[in-house]
Specification:
By secondary structure, this protein is of the alpha/beta class. The chain folds into two domains: 200 residues, Response regulator (Rossmann fold, 3-Layer(aba) Sandwich), CATH 3.40.50; 154 residues, Response regulator (Rossmann fold). Helices cover 41% and strands 16% of the residues. The termini are far apart. The N terminus is likely disordered. Pfam families: Peripla_BP_6. Keywords: Amino-acid transport, Signal, Transport. One of its GO terms (biological process) is amino acid transport.
Length: 410
């Protein structure tokens, strides 16, 4: 076989130029595979912007990792292309953003979002009509309770989380203090996920766990003053306070007012508002120490490299559920695309419905498999606790980074 010398190479180049000038096609070359568009719709502005930005970080990390490993192999190595849409900070803005998303990006094959359950409920009314498969970490039981076919919930629902968390928290309290809690206060905002958790408690979980509800208060975020709420807690002296905020400023007000009025009662939260990094901008680590929260997901044992990347690449102090879950969602979309072998919505949705990938490394409990309603099969939760200025995973044991402590106990 003859070697193509420089004169021959120049001659070949000149020949191609002559062919093009004469209107004849040049020799064909393999085209790069078309990128596959996947969406993230989450708050990038307004009072919930910080969690939305963290979701974007998780999505960007996953897309980079998937593309670095060869993209979607069943589509010839097609890379993922992330499309980010700002849902805004209200249900009305979220619905409008979803309408723009499906109109402006008709090539989207799947998406994830939208942080608050209230936003997710609004967004998925639109994406369901567009037959766009959507993954979500949002907790509300209503999300997968509407008979929709294109919504997939990776978290345990709010009601299920409360069912799992209450016995664990009570057992921990009894072991640490020698006394089982008997009375509780509930302080909750009126967002969908918070109300779902509270509804499950009131509809039987408190009675099932022999707990008496002595304070029951619902507020609209953001709070301007927590004095009246804490005064009711102070007057009734419950054994536990279940606190369900979604805005950091509300968490700050409640904890500061409890400290100011010398209300020394263990605080158990649901959701991550109490554990966002920005909490430390306004609340001291001493005030937070011992506060627990039941969350759908969190950076845990086995994810140390991802957590370190968050710290290095994005200067984040830890990996919240918004980052790790959105990271995991991109891998679910990849798995569905590989199974589908087609970059279209219906094929991806059908593939998601039939996924059966076994245990998943990015979500607590269960499998990478969805039931007919769109619930991830066997989904559990993590319990995190503020210890020495950092919210760490303390349950389940196989994912725990630290041992739990009971507030007030050394």
């Amino acid at each position: 076989m003859k070697t193509l010398t420089m004169p021959r190479l120049l001659g070949a180049t000149a020949l191609c130029g002559l062919l093009l000038a004469a209107g004849m096609p040049a020799p064909a070359r393999a085209a790069d595979p078309t990128p596959v568009s996947v969406g993230l719709i989450a708050p990038m502005s307004g009072i919930y912007a910080r969690p939305g930005q963290v979701m974007r970080m998780g999505a960007e990390m996953a897309v980079a990792d998937i593309n670095a490993q060869g993209g979607i192999k069943s589509l010839g190595g097609a890379p993922l292309k992330l499309v980010v849409v700002d849902s805004g900070d209200s249900t009305e803005k979220s619905k409008s953003a979803a309408q723009r998303m499906v109109a402006d990006y008709p090539d989207l094959v799947a998406g994830t979002g939208a942080y608050l359950s209230s936003f997710t409920l609004a967004v998925t009314e639109v994406t369901e009509r567009a037959k766009l498969p959507m993954l979500t970490l949002s907790y509300s039981d209503q999300i997968t309770g509407r008979g929709f076919k294109y919504i997939f919930q990776t978290s345990a629902t709010a009601g299920r989380q409360a069912d799992i968390a209450l016995p664990i928290i009570l057992e921990l309290a009894e072991k640490a203090s020698g006394k089982r809690p008997k009375t509780v206060a509930i302080l909750t905002d009126n967002t969908a996920a918070s109300l779902s958790s509270v509804k499950a408690m009131k509809d039987g979980l408190l009675q099932k766990n022999n707990l008496e509800l002595v304070v029951d208060e619902t507020f609209t975020p953001p709070l301007s003053d927590a004095s009246s709420l804490i005064q009711r807690v102070r007057s009734r002296r419950p054994d536990l306070v279940f606190f369900l905020p979604t805005v950091i400023s509300d968490a700050k007000l409640i904890l500061e007012k409890m400290n100011e009025t010398n209300v020394r009662i263990p605080v158990i939260s649901f959701g991550i508002a109490i554990a966002e990094p920005d909490v430390l901008n306004t609340v001291s680590p001493q005030l937070l120490n011992g506060v627990m929260s039941a969350v759908a997901n969190w950076g845990a044992k086995g994810q140390e490299k991802l957590i370190q990347r968050m710290k290095t690449e994005y200067k984040e102090p830890w990996m919240t559920q918004n980052a790790i879950s959105t990271y995991g969602d991109m891998w679910i979309i990849k798995a569905a695309l590989e199974k589908a072998g087609k970059a279209d919505r219906e094929s991806v949705a059908q593939a998601m419905r039939s996924l059966n990938e076994g245990p998943t490394p990015y979500f607590p409990g269960g499998e990478l498999k969805f039931d007919d309603a769109g619930h991830r099969v066997g989904a559990s939760l993590t319990i995190i606790q503020w210890q020495n200025g950092v919210p760490v995973t303390v349950y389940p044991e196989n994912l725990a980074i630290a041992q739990p402590i009971w507030p007030g106990k050394k």
